[in-house]
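Protein modeling request. Please complete all fields; requests missing the sequence field cannot be processed.
Requester role: graduate student
Desired output: 3D structure, token encoding
Chains: 1
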Amino acid sequence: MKIIIEKDYENMSKTTMELLLGKMYQDKQVHLAITAGSTPKRMYELMVEAMKEKAPLKNVCYYNFDEIPVGDEEFGVTVGNLKQMYFDPAGIPAEQIHVLDTSNYIEHEAYLKSVGGLDAILIGIGEDGHFCGNLPGVTKFGDETRLVSVKSRPDMFDILVEEVGGDPEKVPENYVTMGPKSVMQAKHVILFANGKKKAAIIKKALQGPVTEEVPSSIFQLHPNFTVVLDEEAASELSR
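Delivered output (239 residues):
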């Protein structure tokens, strides 16, 4: 495990961007799974700026690693956010975006194997230790890409209401996610987090026991695991 601690969110975002660009600028086809959410917002702004003279990098194939469908909308929560933050501003062609959703998840594992697997996956971490759609109480370390039912946890409906913008009518019966076993097959796992509110779970995930109660703790076992934090998120780590 390699832990990089930057002074603040801006510098953390720059460092994470540089890690991804280091993969993307290789003279070969590169397969990246990337995250949505609030943490990468600044990183994507920086990436769009950095790639202005290079985009689109035709060697890069992008993947989402989870998805919550939203009614009849063409794209779910994750890809919709990625399009807004990065794909559209950076001019990424549709053919370079491989969408994982509830209609094609069964073929997802085989497709990734056919292209040689993911070169890197960029993930965040929830305050409960979840990554992708792998929440405590509904996740086993041996899980692969799968559907997760809204009935799998008593509070799941409320979680999904927030994710789909607060409209209970848009909550789906299931969402899809790559499981821990799937994510662990990526050649490089990059996790990033910022803010004091993430400090306690970062301590548990990186320096606590490896347990399904903290799904992100499994990455302690990955042979190529990089963590990028700001000082606040790293504030409870034992140095």
